[in-house]
Write a structure and sequence with these properties.
This protein has 307 residues and is α+β, with helices and mostly antiparallel strands. The chain folds into 3 domains: 108 residues, Alpha-Beta Complex (Nucleoside Triphosphate Pyrophosphohydrolase); 31 residues, no CATH class; 126 residues, Nucleoside Triphosphate Pyrophosphohydrolase (Alpha-Beta Complex). A hairpin with a 2-residue loop joins β5 and β6. The protein has 4 helices and 19 strands.
Amino acid sequence: MIRSGRPRITAAGATRYHVEIRFQPAHTAPTAMLRTPPGFDPSLTLSLDDDAIAHVFVGDALVQFNDSPGGLPWRFYKGEGLSAARHHAVGIHEGRAHVAVALDDAFHPRMLPSGLRAANLRNWFGVIDDATLSIAMRAVQLLEWDRTHRFCGACGTPTSHMQGERARKCPSCGLTVYPRISPAMMVLVTRGRELLLGRGINFPAGRYSALAGFLEAGETIEDAVIREVREEVGVEVDNLRYFGSQSWPFPNSLMIAFRAEYAGGELRPDPAELADAQWFTPESLPQLPPRMSIARALIDATLAELR
């Protein structure tokens, strides 16, 4: 790869840095990061029979049995008196069908029978096995897309499911909508042995992470990395290297992670986005994101090379 860190001047007079991308295998990410389990096969045609593994949701809260959290067949939930308002095929894993199930919109977690509990997916990290949890992360995105697209966004007509596709179509104007995916960049900037980490304004106290932000319409992912770093902390970056990606269902993000090198500028955190941002050495790290996230995988892989 030819790499150039030479600044160039745009027509508006602003300094821009020429950046080229190097792709690096995603296997550098530790296996602790949540991802689709090996052998998982997506499907559109599965039915909600008694033996199907059911990922049951009240809104965006996953319903589980307190005494046996994990993937269980629909018959266990049905035996507790629950009924499906909507359901979607998710896929097949290890020979078992997995189906997303939504309870009625008017159903409240307090209405669950004794022994069942509903909680946001984050609350089940480390409680449910990773394979089941990653499939549940798919399931909740399908249910939320289905819930929010029951009516056409152009003309208001009720939509219907398309045969053979994961899509809803308006019978009146023909508008077709697919499950929403919101791409977001993530980048870990290094300066020698230092890592640039930020603390988001909504983070738990003391936690820092790699910088992240959503793409804008018409923007490339590399443009988004440069823009977001400049906007959030006021510095320039160079030598972008792709690290990996992770689906993140809060509510429908696709996190696309990079490494980058510091190329200039003074650190000036944007208070609208960050409570703080600092350079950290491997010997003086703050509290980091949980290990199932790509943010932690990105940080850990970088630290392994720096130490």
